[in-house]
Amino acid sequence: MNAPWTAGRATQRDPFVAFACDETTAEALRPIAVEQGWSPEKVHKGGLRNAVQTLSVSASPNILFVDLSESGDPLNDINALAEVCEPGTIVIAAGQVNDVRLYRDLVASGIQDYLLKPLNPDVVREAFVQAQAALTAPKLAEETVDRPHCAMAVIGTRGGVGASTIATSLAWLLSNKGGRTTGFLDLDVHFGTGALALDLEPGRGLTDAIENPSRIDGLFIERAMVRASDKLAVLSAEAPINSPVMTDGSAFFQLQEELRHAFECTVIDLPRAMLVQHPALISDVQTAVIVTEFTLAAARDAIRILSWFKSNAPQTRLFIVANRVHPASQLEISRKDFEGSIERKVDFVVPFDQKLTAQAAKLGKPVAEAGKNSKTVAPLIQLAESVVEVSETGDAGAGKNDRKGKGGSLLGKLTALRPKPEKAAKKK
């Protein structure tokens, strides 16, 4: 917690103590505490008031669970609890009030999490695991910077062009290398690979959101998204293929809204059919990455998608990315002919690398992470730079030599990842 604390006592601290208002809550906590290697006798009755009285005369534990059900003023009472706890105590609260404003206020006061009663065993387990991870995590002072939100959609002209691969790599670059908190939203509800590419279980968050749009708020986002790292969280699904998606799109729009509040950057893996079904999804997206291949069918669909954007979202900055590009002799259509047919230049070309793609899949890592300094990853880094520049300056058309004073920015961090020119020359 971040509230004021008393000085630490020399007494040995317990790993876990809980204070529950009712026996039902206590009985739900005891077996889970045993699973974590904690004594079930550390689950006490009495709620928040008993916690304050007890901890005022004894050492606070490493992890403290406190029931707020009987509290008339949870925020004020939490501050009273902070006065009797020692620095470093991780506090998990529970209550019956389902209010995102209360959740945000409690988290802002310094608690780790707020769980709704009646307690869900899986949610409690996850909260305890995260609390233990927080205890062992290195404490870093993060720089707070007021930056505009960076929002992008990645769309494939055809199935199999690798749009999801590009989207996953962009999300990883922006979060793990660029340093921005990033929400990755995979809207292919039945066959999405966003979680799979990061070696994660997708969970039910996305399908729950579609079925119950009214539940979507900051608290829902916090619990539904699966963490890939400290900076990257994923909302994906593997919905049963015998269950068609029945939605008016309100759930998707609300998800985007909450992601803007929760993260510094949003990456949406957007199936092309969504453009037709839910055009409003693009209204607040700054950039759209159109992923294609050099084929006749892809050229036709690229023309149609570009025309759609011109009519429906002229404010969106577009980038054309040719992915999995084979040597010129093996192409169905040359780059020149492709660009002539769509009447614009291809912005980035990602070479085909079967070995790297297979290795990334085996490791459960994005191509950008598995490839490091490979020539396949270099254009992805350049693409990430350009997308960031749209959000930071509103113009991605500036030349590389015009990018000054960005050494501490995300753009500067991504630029630093590029292979040095002299190293590239040596390879030649």
Automatic annotation (TrEMBL):
Q: Where is it found, in Gene Ontology cellular component terms? A: cytoplasmic side of plasma membrane; cytosol
Top-rank taxon of the source lineage equals Bacteria
Question: Which ranges are annotated Basic and acidic residues under compositional bias?
Answer: 419-428
Keywords recorded for this protein, A-Z: ATP-binding, Nucleotide-binding
InterPro entries documented for this protein: CheY-like_superfamily, P-loop_NTPase, ParA/MinD_ATPase
GO MF annotation list: ATP binding; ATP hydrolysis activity
Q: Alphabetically, which GO biological process terms does the record hold?
A: negative regulation of cell division
What is the name attached to this protein's record? Pilus assembly protein CpaE
Q: Which organism is it from?
A: Stakelama marina
